[in-house]
Amino acid sequence: MSEGAPTAAETRRIAEEARDRVRFEEEALELSDQVFRVARRLVNSREEAEDLVQDTYARAFRSWQQYQPGTNLRAWLLRILTNLNIDKGRRQQRTPDLQPLEEGDYFLYNRLESTMPDENPDEERVIERLSQNSVVDALAEVPHDFRDVLVLVDIGEFSYAEAAQILDIPVGTVMSRLHRGRRILKQKLAEKTVSV
Amino acid sequence: MGVRVMGCGCGDCEEMMQPYMDKVLSDEQMREAQEHLEACPPCEKRYHFEESLRRYVRVAVDEPISAELQAKLAGLRSAD
Questions:
Q1: CA gap A119, A133 in Å, rounded
Q2: What ipTM score was computed for the predicted complex, to two decimals?
Q3: Please, are residues A190 and B26 in contact by the beta-carbon 8 Å criterion?
Q4: Subunit contact A54:B17, Cβ cutoff 8 A
């Protein structure tokens, strides 16, 4: 701690820090839309997502010095966001790790195709059988542990390694949850689209 | 043909779909998968479907941030 008037070096340091902080805040704000889009699918309502994003930015702006410049700021923000989401007690409603039944990767296609009149339909026409609402609802029904990974990788377009870092789980766990999460999603989509 | 083909019956192809699309297979596995897909139209179709499905899901669930929230976040800044 220095006494009396700040030295020129100190003044310069303070000015630099203020500049770094402003730059950090601007960069973080530029990412708010992308952060929100991911947050929106990690929780079940728009209000919850908005609260979560606000809390995330409040914390990020307070602890901005912990961010290492040059690393992925979007991943850093989402790490804060997922931690806050867990702090909110989300894990209390955690679903059991085992899903009752899990179909293979071709399940959805086979189910959709089987309801179409023509033989061998075009893939794009098969996809058109899924309504936007059914996709939103199906994703919301994927259990949290799987959905977190699914949302980060398939919607947030994070790499396996980044998702592992954000969620603080091993890369192998990211891969297995992603694989199962996608299968569960397809199963839910099939249930919503094809009634048997 | 006339018969509705439910995949090629080759479980390996189905198992390889996710890692293939995520590009995490070894070069040799990648080549194997590609050869298989070229020879097996039903599997190829399911792979294309999966690609389109990922895009479709991303677009279907997309919800942009509101201007209100953006303004609130800007208000959290320390500066000015």
A1: 27
A2: 0.82
A3: no
A4: no
Instruction: Calculate the alpha carbon distances from A19 to A23, A26, A74, B80 in Å.
Output: 6, 11, 20, 12
From B24, B52, B58, residue closest to A124, measured CB to CB: B52
Chain A residues within an 8 Å CB radius of B36: none
Domain count, chain B: 1
**Tokens, residue A56:** 């995330």
Rounded distance, CA A173 to CA A3, Å?
53
Query: Quick one: pLDDT band at residue B6, thresholds 50, 70, 90?
Result: very low
Does any CB of chain A come closer than 8 Å to the CB of residue B34? no
Residue B16 lies in a domain: yes
Domain of residue B28, residue span: 11-78
Max Cα–Cα distance, chain A, nearest Å: 86
Is residue B3 situated within a structural domain?
Answer: no
Residues A62-112 have pLDDT tens digits of: 999 999 999 999 999 999 999 999 888 665 455 555 555 667 888 888 888
For residues B18 and A92, what is the distance between their CA atoms, to the nearest angstrom?
Answer: 31
The two tokens of residue A53 are 């994003």
Which residues of chain A does B56 touch, with a Cβ-Cβ cutoff of 8 Å?
A: 127, 130, 135
- Choose, out of A17, A61, A105, A158, the residue to mutate when testing the contact with B (most B CBs < 10 Å): A105
Provide the number of CB pairs (under 8 Å) joining chain A to chain B: 109
Rounded distance between C-alpha atoms, residue A44 and residue A179, angstroms:
22
* pTM over the 0.90 mark: no
